[in-house]
Amino acid sequence: MKRRPSAFSNERSVASAGSGKTYSLTNRFIALACSCDPEGICALTFTRMAAAEFLDKILTKLAAAASDASYADELGVQIAEISGGRILRRGDFADILERVTRVLPRLNLSTIDAFEARFVSAFSTELGIAGRLKIMDDYEKERARRTVLDALLGKLSRDSRMLSRFVGLVNAASFGRTQRSVYGKIGDYVRQSQGMFAQFPYPERWGAAKKSLCKIKPAVWDAEEYGLLLGRLELLLAGGGVPKKASELFTFLKNSRLGGIAKGSKLMAALFEFMRGGGNVRDFDFGGGARLPREAAETAQAMLDMLSGASFAAACESAAAVGKIARAYETIYSREVRLRGSLAFEDLTCLLADSSLRVERSLAEYRMDARFKHWMIDEFQDTSRAQWSALENLIDEVFADDSGERTFYCVGDPKQSIYAWRGGAPELFDEIFEKYSGYIREGARLNVSRRSVRPVIDAVNALFSSPALSNFNPAAARAWLDRWEDHVSHSSLGSVGCAALVRRDADADIVDQIYEIIKCVFGQNSSGKSLSCAVLVQTNAIVESVVEGLRGRIMKDCAALSVAGEVENSIADDNMIVPAVLKLLHAAAHPSDTASEAYVKMTPLAPYASGQNWRFEILERAARLGFEGFVREVEKFLDPILPESDAFSRRKLSLLRAAATEFGSRGGIDEFVEYAASRKSRESSKPAAIRVMTIHKSKGLDFDAVILAQLENTRGHEASLRLADASDGGKIVISMPPEAVCRMDASLNAEFEKMASDNATARICKFYVGATRAKRAVYFLSEWFDEGKKSAAKYSFERHVYDVLFDRDKVRPFAGTLACEAFGSLDWSAEVSPKTEVSRAAEIPALENSHWADFPAALGFSDSPSEGVRDAGTTAEGRIFGTCVHRILERIDFLRGPVSEAVSRASFGLRFGAKVLERARECVERALSVSEVRALFLESDGLVCFREFPYAMSEKGRATSGRIDRINAFFSDDGRPLRAEIVEFKTDGAGLSDSEIVSLYSAQLESYKKAASLVFPGAQIECALVNVARAKVLRLGGG
User: Fewer Cβ within 10 Å of end Cβ, the chain: N or C?
Assistant: First the structure.
């Protein structure tokens, strides 16, 4: 390969966290744009935020260089180093800026998803896609999935033989442990298998492991026979001449059954290793040369053979069944959704990976190949194999051209691979480098952090170069340490900062401890420098809980801090205006919806619901103006009414207008109301002082201080399907048997070890990403362990941080507890001043007249009295469980069949951890099985159910708003409200008596009764407080 300048060579670069990867990428783009058409450069990344940042950095660099001669000289030297050309000057950068901005709409700086959408559009007709291709949003995807699932179940219900067969498949897929409804289980398996089926759509190879993976012989489980063998073994072991340790084998066999293998001892691990080598129980040394008598050994071996054979057969049948379920779903989905032009982003990859479309793809690739001369792929470690297959032929053409006029450049860091769960294949980074050896060279390794000060980098090096990582998994640790290079903090960053281990007190609420750390960080800073702080956790449910808790504490202290959660909320939540617009439309279309009409009349939109013909007028305006025009009219009406300071409500209205624009003319009022109510938005466009997010969401961001508040994921691990190599040279999809069974066979053990290594690597990568978000300080909120005492629990990052960083001589009081000042000083924020503010080397000069767009918080409305007591006495974990229970109950209108089926339908698609979701399902099912709770969900004549009913009213001079979990409203034949029963669900109150719980929530329920009396005038108002955890209804007096 000819030695050319970097920008005109095929290269890959390894870039550690914070090492200036985006800076290097933008420099390469500018170097290429000097001598080629900017439209001929295709730069791909994984998130819209990263793509937008990439373009922003390019334009900002060029604009700064075009207006600042000194910066132009500095940037010119950097560009010359990689282009091999002359040093560019200020006028050159102005020319490049003009050429780039001229073709701005046609630049190809996008996500891989967006690129695939253009690719599929190029030959949609050849694919048989009817009509115009449309990418579905989350709302449309969920509706499509539910529609397809209903169609599948409808088909089954009309064919009893097929239904019986499918029930058998569901039982097989769940190892015969089905307790939930067919609907819920099929939904679960579809969700779990969609990605794998798109990657490997060959159901005949799903579960085809019996003859092509291992030496275990499939067996039929016979519980009666197993019990007889166990009794026989017990008698045989009671005789003389039996090794003492044989009791461990008996205990294992006694406590094991199909679907429930016992945890083995060290002796059992040694026996399984012996069996992997071809041995059996008869020849196994139980210590000191002792062996089991022949008859006892044969009996034990027969039991192990049945246990392993039946477990292996069940795992194969499970994978095969899931494959058939996935194919049945995919057949309907392809016909009813995909081929009609409605696609999810994952469908694009599926279509492009379809081997039956090679000819059509080659035509599109020819057109794409002619357009692009230079390819740049960012975050390559997150590329999936299916995504690479869509690009591979195009990249092959680049390597076939040795003129230097076409190039391929990829940058990534396998240490930051945290998206394997959605298909990311970090091993591709090395595989492709090896495949194209001789055509691609290793670029500069970016290992100098331009983000983090020395104390943070010292902690990162200590934690991630430690041999103690082998406690997670020896193979994963070896691979990690072989790749590891110690990071270096750039000299310009200095050493003002801290890495500390803060003791997590078992009896304290984690939110209280997080708040105490935040107060220390911001309370010490008196320099006037604005600090940023991130609280990183594992799940979105924890994010919501921490945000809510922090806001309550900040409000109580009247602290001048703002908190934002990096989660998406419905635009109809937390305000009264958007629900009022939606209820106005719904009430106009449904005259019987008097509750919505009453709600509107409590809001500033009351004039719209007055007059004899107001419904006709609303329907006529919506038809004439369209939904977007109707919302614009409402905005104009409210403009002089809303306080100028209420930017929050105005923003919510603008989001509703945007939703109306996107909805267009897809349906009528009911469809628009459903669409708008499900529409999600982020809280703000300006980073708050404190941002709470998952580690996954934090990737690509940085903050002055980072609090790692949840070092381990509390989510249960859901059984995963694996694509494995079969002995016949092909691939198969398997559902892994229990660990003990895998340990008995060499091939299964190797696959299990690989899975364990992959899982451990993913855990280490995620922790690395979280720790490297910090610019100045990182706080590990963690349990402190007794020195020298080994924990019986699985090795965790809490233990790892403690073992590596804890130093008793560096412990001092901090944030209401104790902290180990591992590196730097806990007083760092008091030392931060404008002179020591973190700055990047070769930083882009600030442009004049630039500013953030502010979105102030809402003013003028107070939350309902429920906000202060809703989760009284509960922890963050308890609030997540309570939220999950509420989400299930709010989806149930009436019980029209078995309770288990209603709960399965209601919980389908909810995003909570497996353990939390299963616990919540059990709690709701148990409660609904009690007659007095179930009675609240039974249909009757004249009964209308309102779920998550929003209300707004004036109380003590302030507008109060909130949501009532459920209202069962009873109407007369002529439509008059007779009785309204408020139903409020609670999951807390542990340790409180019934009367104490009623007293705790009395203010909240009184507020609800006042609101209900306005919505249902003249009706008798009753309250039922349901303690879901106790499956008990507490009745309050009527009004």
Answer: N
